């Protein structure tokens, strides 16, 4: 990936998958990283854009380590991926057969990275441009796409498929055509997705997932808290800040935050919350300090007194039992 780097043709929203992936590559350079991802490294590690984003991330985390006198500053994207890995593997420990549907999958490499076994089918869903880009990169580095032959990166699950779908549109019928079975549990993973759609589209998405899930299914999702979403939008509108175009356009792609009453919101969409944690708590489990988001020091100083703590929800839920009237 050089002068004609195909990743440059990605939309602004799909580009965010490259940025979070670059942060994961930066994390992998630590001794004892929160997450290692060899496939991701070979898929995108030679892109000039990715190298620049990764180096910036390394510089910022090293600066924070020096300023705060801490050993290991890790990006939130590595922490959230590690958390999701652990949830998936825990689910796997009690289920041999299920399907994993990764929504807004970006450059997620779990089918090649986690030992899920032959009874687990994985479906990635993302926008068309990202799905095509990822497929091309997987083929280029000899990752296994079909369950035949010997490959440099073998599939570690039963089967994998990448579906190009807009999750704010009518995506469910297309998924159902590729759906292995409605009788086995589903694990829905939606990391870093919901804030790219408005609240109405997010609720519709949650309801659709619940409608085709068996009772023992699981949802792993992340979302901005309301304070962080509101602060990001004021940041964009507020002319007082020195403008960094990249960060401005990044925040401009956000469309919603999670309503304050997380359990109530999820219940209204067919999901019962099993755990609800803040990113600023989860990282402690991995013995690392969380990287400050670029510009958030200034944002916190200005907006937290009014809006409350700027943070990020990590939620695990199961389908609400359906009550049948007699
Ligand atoms: C920040 S990235 C996260 C990628 C991945 N989940 C991860 O954690 O590395 C957001 C992803 O959501 C996808 N996305 C955003 N809106 C979408 C939509 N309406 N339909 C399908 N995918 C969408 C983007 O293309 C992008 O790949």
TrEMBL record:
InterPro entries linked to this entry: Ppm1/Ppm2/Tcmp (IPR007213), SAM-dependent_MTases_sf (IPR029063), SAM_mthyl_Trfase_ML2640-like (IPR011610)
Protein's UniProt keywords contain Transferase: yes
Coiled-coil region(s): none
Source superkingdom: Eukaryota
Signal peptide: none
SUPFAM superfamilies cross-referenced by the UniProt entry: S-adenosyl-L-methionine-dependent methyltransferases
The entry's keywords: Methyltransferase, Transferase
Pfam families: LCM
Protein family according to the UniProt entry: Belongs to the UPF0677 family.
PANTHER family noted in UniProt: S-ADENOSYL-L-METHIONINE-DEPENDENT METHYLTRANSFERASE YKTD-RELATED (PTHR43619), S-ADENOSYL-L-METHIONINE-DEPENDENT METHYLTRANSFERASES SUPERFAMILY PROTEIN (PTHR43619:SF2)
Protein name: G7814 protein
